[in-house]
């Protein structure tokens, strides 16, 4: 059952992405000729308000076909000169339309994080399970519940890491111990470690206060509207940083391509979610991933098309159509290669 739900979730995220392009295009006055989930032969379709909505054979993505977009580079014709043609829109409108898919993916993730925080989120409570010398010297004890740091209220252990990471100098901790409220002060330690690439020149520094959570102390925390929005933005930012860092490590070679995962791995991970909230959290993270990947400057992706708009309309540099077509085919080939590499890795892990 969860496997079916996982497949539907993946299809829904693709739908969200294409819906972004569709809605922004309509807002900008561009006619959308086709809205398809999947590629290849159309399995079924219907027409509504001048747009053909289709479900296609290969469910590994989707697309929207905008009036005048394919013919933008050709000589003037009736379709290009129409008011509802993509070719007639300003550079800003074109960029906004191309960015619309990623924008909706990001918006979906933020909304998921927001409503989960608003409805109640299962979290590790800010209760100390273990501590080292730094925390002991500051007067902290096992079982202390941290209520606030530098007068910022704490609801979960994850928030402690966030506040410590951006804090400067000495921290003021308000804790609860044996039904008493106490105030403790300590200065975080700076810890330096070599990155996963094992490159001695690549050192990562982070702050610690020397405490670990009590893994048995779980609770459900509900946030106010403002707090929920802050939590949503915080989680969204964490997702962006994690994905961008993973891409950086893949590009620089500090991470193995064996870590790549394909559709089978993604669906498998989604299907292991043991609750609706876990499924939504994973779906939100995957939505951020989908948005970022589509913004990469790889031919056939939104990012490369946005780059093309910038170079053509702002710097007045345009590649000849044959070269554009060749780059597009190369981009498609690269994406197919990455897809099959991810699929190979998934199958290797299963066998």
UniProtKB/TrEMBL annotation:
GO biological process: proteolysis
Cofactor needs: Zn(2+)
Ranges in a coiled coil: none
Cell compartments where the protein resides: Membrane
Topological type in the membrane: Multi-pass membrane protein
A Gene Ontology term for the protein's cellular component: membrane
Record bears the keyword DNA repair: no
GO molecular function, one term: metal ion binding
Class of enzymatic activity (EC top level): hydrolase
Sequence ranges assigned to domain Peptidase M50 in this UniProt record: 6-337
Lineage: Bacteria, Pseudomonadati, Campylobacterota, Epsilonproteobacteria, Campylobacterales
The family this protein is said to belong to: Belongs to the peptidase M50B family.
CDD domains xrefs: S2P-M50_PDZ_RseP-like (cd06163)
Enzyme Commission designation: 3.4.24.-
Top-level division of the source organism's lineage: Bacteria
Sequence intervals crossing the membrane: 95-116, 279-298, 326-344
Name of the protein: Zinc metalloprotease
UniProt keyword annotations, A-Z: Hydrolase, Membrane, Metal-binding, Metalloprotease, Protease, Transmembrane, Transmembrane helix, Zinc
